[in-house]
Amino acid sequence: TTGSSNNCTPPHGFNDFRFKDYAPGAFRYFRTCFGIDTKDFSHSLCDKAMKELSQSGASGSLFYKSYDDVYVVKTVDEREAKFLQSLLVGYYMNLAQNKNTLLPKFFGLYLYSSRSQHFRFVVMNNLIPSYLKLDETYDIKGSTFKRRAKVKNDINSFPLFKDLDFLDRHRDVILFISNFKGLVLDPQYYGLIISTIERDTRVLSSFKIMDYSLLIGIHNISAHVL
Q1: Does Membrane appear among the keywords (predicted)?
Q2: Residue 104, CB half-sphere, CA atoms under 13 Å: how many?
Q3: Predicted confidence band at 124 (pLDDT cuts at 50, 70, 90)?
């Protein structure tokens, strides 16, 4: 049967479902800190269908992107949802003390359940907008053990490189001697990034989180100048 209307939900053509908003006050505060208007937030997620991203996480989570490219939605299991809720106080303290944090920005945690479906999802900021053409993207863990991207035959797929790929692709070869070059940054930006990463890793350590990585996207300006 299709769902009937009530004071909270307008008439719709879907089966009856239940929708739960976890810690709404806390996430509303986070959104306010990031300058996000509640109505704009709702419009981005609900006005049009979201786009499913082709690359899912190693955990099997599904990823979606809002139609306006602002938010990413990730499915989480019950354990992950409870863990995220347990981090809210520490997350708030880090947000208050470190405005430049590179940790994901969480805007909401929700549950959708019906007779045939039951899943939880978290809404985060989209770090890589589609209007910016990225030439290289890396998932860096600081380890070289099995840290090489799998070769894909699909020429249209955009590979997510890993640590060994980063080392291979950012070397200078002079007189047959290979030297790791890395990324060259202005001293002020380098200092800011390093201090922010150090603070963020201390926060993750206090949460006893070990399995994390740094997402690096590279846009070569010279390659896209007409």
Answers
A1: no
A2: 20
A3: very high
